[in-house]
Amino acid sequence: MAKTADTQLVPLNLPAGLTERYITSEASALTYHIIEGGSKGKPLLVLLHGFPEIAYSWRKVMPELGKHYYVVAVDQRG
Fold it and tell me: What is this structure's pTM?
């Protein structure tokens, strides 16, 4: 389980080839949740969601996009 602050979060049920992790911004000390797939050697494709969606909304298209790109879906704050 991922741990952020004092909260234990249950891992997401993601399709094969996708992983999730948390990254912390050095500039602001904020922690962001991301879902990623594909190979880091491929061109980067960043997927952003709108309100009221979350990064998990991209899970069904990410495996196909991951064949050609390193795909990252970011959970945006707010």
Answer: 0.81
